[in-house]
Amino acid sequence: YASPHHGFAAFYTYLEFIFKADCMLHFGTHGSLEFMPGKQVGMSGSCYPDRLISVLPNLYYYAANNPSEATIAKRRAYASTISYLTPPADNAGLYKGLQELSELVKSYQGLRENEQRGATIVNSIIATARTCNLDKDITDLPEEDFDCKEIDIEERDNIVGKVYRRLMEIESRALPMGLHRIGVPPTAEESIATLVNIAQLDRPEDKIKGLPRIIAESIGRTPEELYRNSDRGILADVNKLQEVTLASRAAVRALVMVSTNSEGRVDEVNPLLRDMFSFFGGGSPWKKALTEAGFPNCNDSDMKPLFEYLQGALGLIVKNNELPALIKALDGEFIEPGPGGDPIRNPDVLPTGKNMHALDPNSIPTKAAVDMAFIVVDRLLEGLAKQGEYPESIAFTLWGTDNIKTYGESLAQVLALVGVRPVPDSLGRVNKVELIPLEKLGRPRIDVVCNCSGVFRDLFINQMNLLDRGIKLAAE
Q1: Would the pTM count as exceeding 0.90?
Q2: How far apart are CA 121 and CA 98, in angstroms?
């Protein structure tokens, strides 16, 4: 917190008394006004945010995925926020040497049983992988002078599988597709990128399975099994996981394309989709896309609620409510409130153009966040245990924004590491913890060193107490 310099203070004074502005419009995330010295809440005349904004109405465009800092703008600068959509994120893809490496892997898949050519291609894969510095990630990658003719096909598959898995990790990293423009809904391509991410998640509270799970179950597998085997570098399952990923994208693309106009945008969701599974008597477009991708046996009863959910989410993604909300605010009208957070995990954040609020801090971590936290912790410790032993302690930084987006997942991860489970009461408030016996936990309790941000400390005082009780319970 630094006191404002004279130019900063003069700017607000000029707007109020010389320019005589009717309203102030800030663009976040985020400005400096709400972080000026003064009290955390309940501003007085001696607090800089109060003195600077004075009596000017303060409207604030704010990224929909950052309700924690938007809350600070509301508390300390009297802001009425108007949420805007974050840029859609798509797969990073591959380029240069990584693309060449991907082509070599595909060549090997067609010639793997050819002793001479298969081994030669694996030698090229090893050399190219080292050129791309993948040996920094794949610690047991053979040296360049290693001759793959000396090993059998199973060992060659393992080498190629580990390289391919790493390539798929790089290719699937999410990168923002440019910047969002206020009042300009996403294009169809941008909507596909967002919907693919929404479709990945299981939503047990809505009795909806994620699309990767539906596809995997159609071939008698589970996503967890595919991920686990892919992590181990089993080439067949690395391939299968990539096929599931590509099929998911194809199915979501088919859903969006039906409602896409000639300009590549979705004006409104096609009403024909309401009767999904009698689309011209030949099955839905996404069912056809999955069949063409090699997964014809996906369960219709699982797909129906998922694609109804995605259809609703698509309509909310493309709804243009950001500029109309600003016009209503400038006219002194009511701005509809709504939750902020990650629109992928919680599509209730959509449509944007709402006066954001966060969540009930007493309700986190939610059951879904706790379940996901235990999965993440188990995978983390499983990976670390492969290096020889469990860690004695792990450091965590707890951020307010992160825990609001994930409904307390980071907080639940800390409790999971020490072997403690949060327990909600009959009203859904999380105010108790229970110790998991070591026999059931199946591993040592891990010490955790927590560094909490100021926002987390101020917003989640009850969760700080929950952490304290959980750590003491484990220590005793």
Answers
A1: no
A2: 15
